[in-house]
Amino acid sequence: MTDPLKKVLGAQVRDLRFARHLSQEGLAEELGVSTRYLAGIERGERNLTLDSVDALAEQLGVEAHALIVRR
């Protein structure tokens, strides 16, 4: 069975954040969300709106669809 998209998105966000040497605190601040909320996204616990996915993608410098592609 494959992981739910929110788990895939969370792993992608975490990997991209690490690759860009960003802390959770730094990325959360840039997004205007709490560190706790961002941590929930990275753990795949949050259901995001499409607007939130767009904002994350923009902040990480990728296309939105790249956050939900299963590898």
UniProtKB/TrEMBL annotation:
The protein's matches in InterPro entries, at most eight in alphabetical order, are given as: Cro/C1-type_HTH (IPR001387), Lambda_DNA-bd_dom_sf (IPR010982), TransReg_Diox_bact_type (IPR050807)
| Domain HTH cro/C1-type, residue spans | 13-67
The answer to whether UniProt assigns keyword Zinc-finger to this entry is no
PROSITE patterns in the cross-refs: HTH_CROC1
Pfam family, any one: HTH_3
Q: Does the keyword Metal-binding apply?
A: no
Give the stretches traversing the membrane. none
CDD domains tied to this protein: HTH_XRE
At the top level, the lineage of the source is Bacteria
For this UniProt record, the keywords arranged alphabetically read as follows:
DNA-binding, Transcription, Transcription regulation
Write the protein's name. Helix-turn-helix transcriptional regulator
Question: In the record, what lineage is assigned to the organism producing the protein?
Answer: Bacteria, Bacillati, Actinomycetota, Actinomycetes, Micrococcales
